[in-house]
Request: fold
Amino acid sequence: MIENPSSKEVISLVNVNKTYFMGENQVHALQNVSFSIKEGELVSIMGPSGSGKSTCMNMIGCLDRPTSGQVFIDGKGTFEMTEKDLSVLRNRTVGFVFQQYHLLATMNVLENVMLPLRYKGIPRSERKILALEVLEKVGLTDRISHYPHELSGGQKQRVSIARALVTKPKIILADEPTGALDSSTGKAVLQLFNEINKEGTTIVIVTHDPGIGASTKRCIRILDGKVADDKINSSFEANEVHHV
Ligand SMILES: Nc1ncnc2c1ncn2[C@@H]1O[C@H](COP(=O)(O)OP(=O)(O)OP(=O)(O)O)[C@@H](O)[C@H]1O
Ligand SMILES: [Mg+2]
Reply:
């Protein structure tokens, strides 16, 4: 196992290229993408449709492999890992949140949140305690017996955040988490991410929305598969000056 020398970096992409081969055509979805994210950061990856955001998230979440380049997650080089190693790393380290929630319609809120713990082999009684704990954190204690179709969009997204959190991952990856929500519900979900981040979880939010890009301290902008810029938002710099 190759260890990344800087262990505080929980995500590191080094010259990552991803090419999709479609018959005779090639799509260069990511081109020489390099950046590192440290433990405890809250970062947005922003870009227009087709710019490569989801491809980038698939690299970070070890859902797919780069065509070339290296991905380090939690200090571990993933390029030489087997599929099994990758899925173990993913299950231990990453929680996913998606625009369309991906909740199981036949399970109620509590069961949906308990499910990832079942895959980890945690006993049922303990699963329930842990799930109730995170459901309280996302403010859904009074909805645990509801089924997904009985919830609002914002509530569904809170369930999916609880499900991502329940395994206590180091990293939460969220792909357009507010894309299906009205703006005030979206703001509440972002606020929840902020609270979770303050407790130490590294969070990466993929978005096409410049408003969300501006609401996170750091924003990595992707254009045509390349990092166009990677900067600290000026409002956060100003805040930091006040704190010094
Ligand atoms: N499985 C695939 N096979 C072939 N081409 C793909 C595949 N997935 C993505 N692409 C192409 O790669 C490019 C980047 O796609 P990606 O899904 O990463 O964009 P995105 O920034 O997430 O867009 P959106 O905001 O619309 O979700 C696009 O041109 C897309 O058509
Ligand atoms: Mg996408």
The first helix runs from residue 53 to 60. The helical segments are 53-60, 83-93, 109-119, 124-137, 153-165, 183-198, 210-215, 234-243. The beta strands are 9-22, 25-38, 42-46, 68-73, 76-77, 94-98, 171-175, 202-207, 218-223, 226-232. The chain has one domain: 9-243.
